[in-house]
Design brief:
Layout: H1 5-16, E1 27-32, H2 37-49, E2 56-60, H3 63-76, E3 85-87, H4 93-101, E4 103-108, H5 113-116, H6 118-127, E5 130-133, H7 138-155, E6 159-160, H8 168-178, E7 187-196, H9 201-212, H10 214-227, E8 235-238, E9 244-246, E10 251-255, H11 260-270, E11 277-286, H12 289-306, H13 309-318, H14 327-332, E12 334-343, E13 346-354, E14 362-365, E15 368-372, E16 375-376, E17 382-384, E18 393-397, E19 405-409, H15 417-428
Parallel strand pairs: 1-2, 1-4, 2-3, 4-5, 5-6, 7-11, 8-11
Antiparallel strand pairs: 7-12, 9-10, 10-11, 12-13, 13-14, 13-15, 14-17, 15-16, 18-19
Helix pairs in contact: 1-7, 2-3, 4-6, 6-7, 7-10, 8-11, 9-12
């Protein structure tokens, strides 16, 4: 799977000299993988929230399935009855290049990305097309950086990975939290995730593949470290935490072996707001010691089983790709991510939460918790706008003797579809790994 970069090197450089300006392209967005579970959800969201004048198309392997998706979108809004369909296979490098040249942005939900993702990244890098995916596979992200960063940079392509649960809540939550601290001083941050939700078949299969490839994942990470420039005059790093109990949150903490800390640290390397020295640790938060010990046993058992091919095949057969939680399950789903920032003697606690349908996200500022007259400030609650963009004013409220409390009153009007897209692109800019030259 994938392209032979050595053989195609001069072809890509030749193409780079003839990249079509994005303003002249046929589409604004092409959604690749629209016939899958996550791709279908993404298509429905675009159909319901696309700003006026958005030129987009859906792409996939089966024209019949694409037509079925289009009918479901037309039921949301009749104007999508003629939505363009693009039939393309994830392994067809030539056709993928044509698709990439026709659009400003490609969003892909076709995973596991380590198996199916490289040809599309290569096409976008060669054609100067912005690329967005949902991968949570560190090996894929690091390998794509090493192979295509320079080409993408020359051609003005922005390759942006991990734009789903991995790692939007964690990346934006960390970004919001550090802005409440002093960027001139070192920052130590930990994220604590709690969730009551299911997962798609694609996510499950990707996770098993990553557990089976821990050695290759370390090699890809090392190759990227040798290739990528370090921030000058600053230190940023992800720290592997240890199982413990968080006295502030009241949860038992279990380190999470996910891509999220690496994405957070990548943003920290790109932005000075994270301070001269930044460390981040990532945990699952569990209420009881029993659940914590059970979680450790489950992760270890799954990791061992994933390395045994027959066991891995059996586990994969239990959850099919292209499937996911039902509408009822998604409506009941929720997650919270608490962030604890430490700077000198100050502690800052923020929380991002998602409690309704998958279309709605809130980020809640739980307030500052610091030492005042020998005691801690009590958490204060408020709300900032979607994706962490706040609107409104703040006011303080009285508290008990010896304590101060800050309470935010931020009630923004819902942003337009165009503003939502603009917000997402603005915030993703911080963690893109390919900058326009």
């Amino acid at each position: 799977m994938g392209l032979n970069v050595g053989v195609q090197q001069h072809q890509e450089v030749a193409v780079a000299k003839k990249v079509q300006p994005k303003i002249e392209r046929q589409y604004d967005i092409v959604l690749f993988g629209a016939t899958g579970f996550t791709g279908g959800l993404t298509a429905k969201y675009l159909a319901a929230h696309a700003p006026a004048g958005l030129r987009w198309a859906i792409a996939g392997r089966s024209e019949t399935k694409l037509a079925s998706v289009r009918r479901s979108l037309a039921a949301i809004d009749s104007k999508w009855a003629d939505l363009p369909l693009i039939v393309v296979d994830a392994t067809d490098a030539e056709t993928l290049g044509e698709v990439a040249a026709s659009t400003k942005v490609i969003c892909t939900t076709v995973g596991p990305y380590l198996q199916h993702g490289e040809p599309l990244v290569a096409a976008c890098a060669a054609k100067g097309t912005d690329y967005v995916d949902l991968t949570g596979e560190p090996e894929f992200v690091d390998t794509m950086y090493v192979k295509y960063h320079d080409l993408a940079k020359r051609n003005g392509a922005r390759i942006v990975h991990a734009c789903g649960f991995d790692s939007i809540p964690h990346d934006l939550g960390a970004w919001w939290t550090v802005q409440q601290l002093d960027s001139a001083k070192p920052i130590k941050l930990r994220g604590v995730v709690r969730t009551g939700a299911g997962f798609s078949g694609g996510t499950y299969h990707s996770a098993l593949d990553q557990l089976a490839r821990s050695g290759q994942m370390r090699q890809a990470m090392q190759a990227r470290r040798e290739h990528e420039q370090r921030p000058k005059g600053r230190k940023v790093r992800a720290v592997q935490g240890k199982p413990s109990r968080d006295s502030l949150l009241g949860y038992y903490l279990l380190p999470l072996p996910t891509i999220d800390p690496f994405i957070v640290v990548r943003s920290a390397a790109a932005l000075d707001v994270y301070g001269p020295e930044f460390t981040y640790s990532h945990f699952a938060g569990l209420k009881t010691l029993t659940y914590t010990l059970g979680g450790v046993a489950a992760v270890v058992s799954l990791g061992v089983a994933a390395k045994i091919p027959p066991a891995r095949s059996f586990l994969k057969s239990r959850v099919k790709q292209g499937t996911g939680p039902s509408v009822q399950k998604r409506e009941r789903s929720w997650f919270t991510v608490d962030f604890i920032g430490e700077q000198g003697g100050q502690i800052l606690h923020t929380q991002g939460q998602w409690r309704r349908s998958w279309l709605h996200r809130d980020l809640e500022d739980v307030g500052r918790v610091g030492h005042v007259s020998g005691s801690r400030r009590q958490p204060a609650c408020g709300r900032i706008g979607d994706y962490g963009r706040g609107h409104g004013s703040q006011s303080s409220s009285p508290a008990g003797a010896g304590r101060n409390q800050i309470r935010s009153h931020l009630r923004p009007a819902p942003p337009s579809g165009e503003q939502r897209l603009a917000d997402v692109l603005t915030l993703l800019h911080a963690r893109r790994h390919c900058k326009q030259s």
